[in-house]
# Entry
Amino acid sequence: MRAIAREAGVGIATLYRHFPTRESLVDAVYRDQVVRLTTGARELLGRLPPAAAMRRWMDLFGDWIATKNGMLDTLLAMIESGEIAHAQTRSELLAAITTILDAGRAAGDLRSDITAEDIAASLIGIFTVAPRREQEAKAGRLLDLLMDGLRPAARPA
# Structure
């Protein structure tokens, strides 16, 4: 907690006043990141074509996974105790992916036979074998490869 306070540029008392326990801090970070991912999908679609929005959202997801790394033990304990509703988070993330997928399908940028679950499983696999901070270049290549697979096949001339 001292390192977190130092990194945030606040005193330890200020940190504890806002987050009296490690669990309360983990919960706040976790919820903030989920909100960023879910609202990020809509914001990206407002600025980018659907395929580009999907690729950028994948980067956001990778950042979210990397953020969770340092708090994994506490996070898993909180999920197990019911303090964090894992099923709700999953539903929110799948809805964010679906938002982008639907826009991509309508624009003809993304395949119609891919589900949000397919993409979520692929992302978890990618970030398992290429953790974002340790192997950012490899993760980027794998995400680009996934995006290639999400695009509709070119029609013969």
Remarks:
- Residues 28-150 form a domain with the Tetracycline Repressor; domain 2 fold (CATH 1.10.357.10).
- The two ends are 61 Å apart (CA to CA).
- The chain has a mean pLDDT of 82.
- The chain has one domain: 28-150.
